Amino acid sequence: MDKRQDADTSTATVASGAGAPFSSKYTPMYAVLALLPMLVLTAGGAGETGVLAWTVVLMVLFAVCSPLRDGVPGRVIAFLAGAVSLCIAGTGLMTDLLSGSGDRAATSIASMTTAREVAWFAGVGGLLVVLIVVSFIRQMAREERSHLIRGLSHSVLDGVALIAASGWMFLPDYMALPDAGADNTAMIASAIVVALLFVGLSVASNWWMAEADPDEHAIRPWIGIVVLPTLLSGVLVPIAAVLASIA
């Protein structure tokens, strides 16, 4: 009888709301593992190409295995928004648009920091506005509007995660700032802040995993939770780069 109770207890510790094959308390560890290839690729000199490849992998994993109740249309919209964000981060189109607009305020900000980061922030701001409007319209168009707040929040969070992921494209630039003359103290301080915030998100994923309530047809939603801290942390990289460059 005692052995059976021990077995039941062991099973209970492994089970989680997202159906993960491990206890939710190990989720932060797996979240860190999702980030490691990003750091290794950058440190190994893979540059933006390597970072882009791993970012796309994480985005696809989240889009397929999202624990959020957003449905296929919502995930497609979120992934398209993330793809546009990647284009903004990886190309100079938005930078050229800002610098050629004749807006002195935008030009002065770009001269103080990095033009690509400024352009990315501007583009992401526009994407977030569009995402919120589209998500609201989708919820209003539903015949049955039950769980309206949950549906809207899940739809927005799906998009925010995939849009923020493109911020990792600036990691090579950020790590090269000391060679460009950035203040070492500012670099260390910004790196510590980014690390602490990522740790905070990773620790929070423990509760996300345990309390997740994914759709019954969701495909391995625990994978989506594991990669979510890395995706959300992408926005921290350009912020850290801007702060370190103006310090």
Automatic annotation (TrEMBL):
It comes from the Bacteria. Keywords: Membrane, Transmembrane, Transmembrane helix. The chain crosses the membrane at residues 31-64, 76-98, 118-137, 149-171, 186-210, 222-246. This is Uncharacterized protein.
